[in-house]
Amino acid sequence: MNPIPSIDYIRILPEIILTMFGTIVMMADPLFDDHNDRKALGVLSAFGVLAAIAATVYQSAPQYHGDGFFNMIRVDSFSIFFHMVVLLVALAAILMSFEYLSVQHLKHGEYYGLILYGAVGMCLMSSAIELVLIFIALEISSISTYILAGFRRKHAESTESSIKYFLLGSFATAFFLYGVALIFGATGSTQVDKIAASLKVGAPPLAYVAVALMCVGLGFKVAAAPFHTWTPDVYEGAPAPVVGLMSTAPKAAAFAVLLRVLFGTGAPGWFWMIWVTAALSMTIGNLGALVQSNVKRMLAYSSIAHAGYLLVAFAAVKNLDNGISAAMFYAASYAAMNVGAFAIVSHFANAGERFVQIDDYAGLGKRAPVLAAILTVFLLSLIGIPITGGFFAKFYVFSAALRSSLVWLTIIGVVNSAIGAYYYLRIIVMMYMREPQTDAPVPEVPFGVALALSLSLVTTIYLGVMPNRVLGYALQSAKDLLR
Amino acid sequence: MNMASLNSIILTLVTFLPAAGALLLAFFPRRDRDIKWFALGISLITFLISLHLPARYVSGQPGFQFEQNIRWISTPNIHYHLGVDGISLWLVVLTTFLVPFCVMISWKSIHERVKEFFILLLVLETAMIGVFLALDLFLFYFFWEATLIPMALLIGMYGHERKIYAAVKFFMYTMIASVFMLAAILWLYAKTGTFDFVDIQNAIHIGNVPGFAGAATLLFLGFFIAFAVKVPLFPLHTWLPDAHVEAPTAGSVLLAGVLLKMGTYGLLRFNLGLFPEQARQNAPWIITLAIIGIIYGALVAMVQPNLKKLIAYSSVSHLGFVVLGTFSFTQAGIDGAVYQMLNHGISTGALFMLAGILYERRHTYDIKQFAGLATPMPVYATFFLIVTLSSIGLPLMNGFIGEFLILSGAFQAKAVYGVLAASGVIWSATYMLWMYQRVFYGNVTVPVNNSLPDLDGRERTALWPMALLALLMGVWPMAWMNSIDATVARVLKQVNGSVQATIKSPALSLNDKDATDTEQTVEVSGR
Questions:
Q1: Is residue B90 part of a domain?
Q2: Are the beta carbons of B186 and A395 separated by less than 8 Å?
Q3: What is the three-class DSSP state of A137?
Q4: Chain B residues close to A468, C-beta within 8 Å
Q5: pLDDT, tens digit, for every residue of B1-56?
Q6: What residue numbers bound the domain in which A424 lies?
Q7: How, if at all, do strands B65-73 and A73-75 pair?
Q8: What is the per-residue pLDDT across A94-123, written as a single tens digit (0 to 9) for each?
Q9: What is the ipTM, given to two decimal places?
Q10: Closest by CA position to A313, among listed A406, A176, A387
Q11: Does residue B149 lie in a domain region?
């Protein structure tokens, strides 16, 4: 057996750090007494994520780029891009959980540990180039989120959410695993490069089936129609900060895997599947969101729609660089705005998540002008209005699609984004144009939430005004991925 | 600062000064009085600075002036490209001119959330100016969408009873229509690799856009629908009466004064500028819609019991004239269209201010509630009369010049257009004068009206410039027309030139364009 060179450990440094911190949090948890709100563990986890971010930055030096662990791990701009997205989302989720856990009387340190473990899985998903390792990473991330979804265990809907997520999620990973097995049968390897080399020579029919199965599995993870049905129920029941996390980070990671599987291996025969999925997700997501009265459910449908927009970029195959970079940019900016929106939803929800109906937002513009203004920015970004990241994200996606002559998909997309404007606007209308129904003061924004909010706000605006650097990096990553 | 460096940044300064003011306001303590004075100060300074544009504008010079072109985003190739020509020049000044009055007119009528109101107003000003100045299609779309939010919020937060319905309707109409424009812009970018208006125009002109012939009509319609909703052209006008009736006075003034002009400006700049052939092909039905709008708007205005709704429908009618002039493809018609945009901004802006003043006193727009107002409010009645006459296009008033030019252009294009549209002039005189008669003459029928106070100093200050300008623009149009005329001539030459180019063989079209360019240079040096 080859000895493992020490540089390989640097290539998984962020994962090592996260695992260590996660384990420390788990072990330290019993030392606290039952009434402590575990804020110290939260702070520790936040530092863990910061350390992992530092490690990722360290990794990004060119000499660490390359394959490690017997060609199972690859550090390149692509993996670093998704590492940053996942870690920043995890950081924001941890920051907004300090207050949430104490308001909801959830005094368990494992919560933070699970977020860290989940982040390990998601990071690994973006850097793994071997399908079995990808599967393991997918499972690490999924299992952590299943548990997190059921964290409000005294509430029936949270348990329901967890079970639904778990059952359907296991089903989906089984599909993915089946696909992996078949592709191994078709090409004799599970390593992305070797698969690519084999598929270049010729793709047996089995490979088409394998790609379809993997797309089904990942389609579930990113909540793309027609594999989306779990999303509203799961998002409704899960704790709000967890929804902020799981609607963005695991999705981004799953998109990373999808990019690897579809483009890294040069997989055949998925174009129309993705085309239809994209069109369906946009349409079903937006139409579904129109009729929701619960903000979390509405944002769940909106996340289905956004998965659809993102998949439009996948279909832009005639211009791979553009399509892939647009998809990556979309994942990043969607993460920023959606985490921000959920930070406010979770802050505003109050004990037992009482205030999550759209009607509860009436008059928020008067009761909490700053919060309302910030939420407005996130909603405008979700609509895709200029000077927000959401605008450029949509813009890049549609322009990549048009460059690949996907005129109809683009038209479906822009019409959908106009329809989508309506339900986001409903919240803005509620906040600013209706009278408040209660005089109950909105609780002061605590430090953690404020930090998470400013992080996502600054990112959203930054991506909307100066998208150059991030997009340039995404383009670089696309080139790395296709090399 | 020397003149050259001022010239190079003047457009940025004018565009973003209000936004900078809004940003400062955001950190202001909630002392309403100071906020109002600050907003007034910022908008006045913006207006004064914007006067630099007409002062230093060189009428004969072809192309855009005071240009500023910086790369903003490298991929896709987006530039921060601003520039002004004879068409946009006065629209910018109109915008900066109207905003201070909007601040003054809102002085007393806005009590709640004062800070937000003025922030929205100033942000809106930046976006509106940006729309007129942007020469990069992306930047244009950016500003275009950016006008949407503040206006929708102004209507929805400070409007009257059915404000939410009106705000959402306004937002959705504009939003849905403008995504088609976005798709068209993206298509052009995908084929040309640039968003620059001038570059795309040249590329289309010399036939350097692959697949253009097949897509041109769809692209034309993509832009057209976005602008037609904004104008609003019959039958896409239904959002307008709702938005106007529910909007606060300042919102109505800017909506009528500037936002509708964004539509007609867009038609002229982009639909004619980028797709001259398609514009010609589609002109008959567009003109038909415009004429229907002129007559329909006037007839509906006549039967309105609500003062504000009446003015709103009169806008539909007046803007129909502008569209008619634009698609007549004659020098007179387009000159008149541009001039009429300014006139309508002044006269309808003033009408909405006057209606707002009345509303502040009586809290109703119902015409039946008023009669004989000339007795308790003589000064108000006088201003109202001046503005009414300007709106119906009495000779010596500004409306006359615009309508006359448009009608003469319409006659040149096709006599029947002129005849039908001319009837609109009669209709507009009928409904405006009838309304004036009902509101101001006769005896006071509702006792409360006897004690209505006449205009105070602030209101007079806001109205005098409007009235004077309406008169000045009627007697001395050349002050405005010089710069408009030269630009319109160039636009028209492009429109006609490209039609000729298609008649000739494609191989010749390149030389043809060169010939046009030389002609232009000769003409300029001749001036």
A1: no
A2: yes
A3: helix
A4: 73-75
A5: 566 777 788 888 888 999 998 888 888 887 888 888 988 999 999 999 988 888 88
A6: 7-482
A7: unpaired
A8: 998 888 888 887 778 888 999 999 999 999
A9: 0.76
A10: A406
A11: no
